[in-house]
Structures are given as structure tokens and as C-alpha cells.
Amino acid sequence: MPAAAQSVRPVIVEYRGRAESTFEVKNDTLFPLYVTLEARSFSITETGQAVFRPVDPGIRLRISAMSFRVPPRQSYRVSYEADADSLPAWFVIYSTFARTPGDGVNI
To answer: What is the largest CA-CA distance in the chain?
Structure first.
């Protein structure tokens, strides 16, 4: 029996300047999933390692929902806007999926 999974798409998006877009969180399972989002800034070291930290003060990020429930075999669209005082301004939006609020798997 194939395993059902959750997904987020698009996975990577790059902008020049102001960002305004959406991404989709999809639940391919037969049970509802609870999703919590968390934004983090990051930088890449000279050795290629990612270093994550709270969102930089110079980045203004607005996300339409920080937590929500996705019914079985359905999806949820999240909109966001971001601008920054200086470029490059890198950030990631983590999605944590759980069968009950408070538990979860980071994706």
C-alpha cells in the first residue's frame, strides 16, 4: 500500500526586491492535518552550511495564516508579502504538520 504524504509547493522561490506570492500546503492523507508555520532568516557560511536565526529586523514579512487545519485530500493556500531594507534578504518559512495540534513533523 503506498504511503500518503504532505507537500508544500513551490519549494524555492527567488525575487528581486519585493516578494508577493502564495504557496500551497497539500494533505494527501485520509485524516486532517494541522499545520504551523514559522519564518526564519538564514545565511550560508563559506563552507556551505546554513545558519538559521530569527527573522532579521530589516525584513518585513506578512503571512496570511501562521496555523491552520487542512482537511483530508485537500490543500490550503497561504499568501505572503516580504520586503527588506537591504538585499540580499534570505528567509525560509518552515511548515510543521501534525495529526493533532502540538505534535508534528517539520518539512
So the answer is: 50
